[in-house]
């Protein structure tokens, strides 16, 4: 079901300042830049900045596991007896994400992102 770790999203309270800082740190501009989310492709993984994340994320950053089918993966996680944290939602451009709380209270996110691919192996 899981394809591997894909994305970590940091909650930020000042998106413009966070974007400037991470752009300088990474020496690149984001590949996805909207008022509701900023995303960077860093070595085949995504670093996301979420201006609304601080209220939604109980423990800080949320790590998202890549999946081919977000709805099926979410259903499987619920079958394992854990509660939903955020239902599957389309956040734009065909990207679907959602999350559950594991039995220990950690947020486990899943993401189906048709625009994101790992670089070819060298």
UniProtKB/TrEMBL annotation:
SUPFAM superfamilies, per database record: Glyoxalase/Bleomycin resistance protein/Dihydroxybiphenyl dioxygenase (SSF54593)
Pfam family, any one: Glyoxalase
Entry superkingdom: Bacteria
PROSITE patterns in the record: VOC
Protein name per UniProt: VOC family protein
């Amino acid at each position: 079901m899981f394809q591997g770790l894909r994305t970590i999203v940091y909650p930020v309270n000042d998106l413009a300042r966070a974007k400037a800082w991470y752009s300088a740190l990474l020496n690149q501009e984001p590949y996805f830049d909207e008022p509701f989310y900023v995303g960077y492709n860093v070595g085949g993984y995504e670093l996301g900045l979420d201006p609304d994340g601080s209220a939604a994320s109980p423990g800080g950053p949320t790590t998202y596991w890549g999946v081919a089918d977000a709805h099926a993966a979410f259903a499987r996680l619920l079958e394992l007896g854990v509660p939903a944290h955020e239902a599957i939602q389309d956040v734009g451009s065909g990207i679907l994400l959602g999350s559950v709380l594991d039995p220990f209270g950690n947020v486990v996110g899943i993401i189906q992102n048709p625009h994101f691919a790992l670089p070819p192996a060298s």
